[in-house]
Amino acid sequence: MTARIGPGRLRQGIVYREGTLGSRPSVPTDAAELERRARRRMSRAAWAYVAGGAGEGATMRHNREAFDRWRIVPRMAHGIVERDLSTEVAGTPLRAPLLLAPVGAGALVRRDSDVHIAQGAAAAGVPYVLSNQGCSPMERTAAAMAGTPFWFQLYWSTDEPLVDSLVGRAEACGARAIVVTLDTTLLGWRPQDLNLGSLPFARGQGIAQYTSDPRFMQLARERAATPRTAPTRVTLGAIRTLLSMSREHPGGFWRNLRSPEPRAAVETFLDIYSNPGLDWSRLSTLRARTALPILVKGVLHPDDARRALEAGVDGIIVSNHGGRQVDNAIASLDALVSIRAALGPSPTLLLDSGIRTGADVFVALALGANACLLGRPHIYGLALAGADGVRQVVENVVAELDLTMALTGTASLSSLSPSLLTPAPH
User: Which residues are catalytic?
Assistant: First the structure.
């Protein structure tokens, strides 16, 4: 019986065969060159938003340094010729332990960004966590997933009916889970954006989930109809950006330049998008408001992880928001080790922040993650080649994970453990 060709050899074979015909991958297969080439394609504002971090960037460095503190120990003559990368997380079957993380305001990088990302994720067969700060309504992005599972990220608004409306829409369009992001009740100090005076949401980018929502539009229209003595300053450029979104929204809301509603929509969003007063008791109410699995994203402390489980969540995404919220924070990988040690083997833990390669995924899984979220790299692929760029980035990461498992004698994800790693020498 012939052994099944794994995704690692399959991807290598495609690249090398095309190479004999003089073709090279349109998306680099190494993380450093992927980042360099993507930067050349992006505007200054796009690069600042996507690649920038909080403060002096220490947390982003910590994320990478944490992976550097571990070494993989290959094993020989193990006789394993096939690997099983499949798993299930929060009731969602995965062909590989990888999901695409939510990244807001993707239209800074490419128009119709969310649709392109969804198409790339579907082509690669991995779920996408639809961003609450997306540039296309969730219904349109969900349709582009073409049956591939997806989750929905929720920023908990100060308006509770809007929370229910967003969750209800996610349920209606087929989301398999709700991911509540906890670490962005306020924006962190992001000098790259601040130095450019660039906040995409103030320009109407990344608020399509809101402007396509009936509850939000009710609030925006009420605001537009209310005289205000000191309105928030929103530029004509912002209104033009909003008008350019008309194709993605039903009706003619964005089509009248003289209407005060586009300005009111931006102002309303800036007022209510996230709730600084969110606490565990309020979070626990979500369990009775949706039948979907609930995960929380942004947890770094074992005590917070325990509180989340007590609040009824089904999984925890260990994340420092890619180093974008608190400077000099703990690395997500280090937090994963502490949380897994505190909670034991049963709870579902995912790792976000710092993942760049298949080897990184291997290390995270060996240290206790059930799956990983890939953030910036898929946006870099989007910048270089749209949906196909996203697909290539995902397939490269999965290929390297498969090959790393093969070369360490790991037949399945359940076989991954800290015994396959050793700490790096000091």
Answer: 321
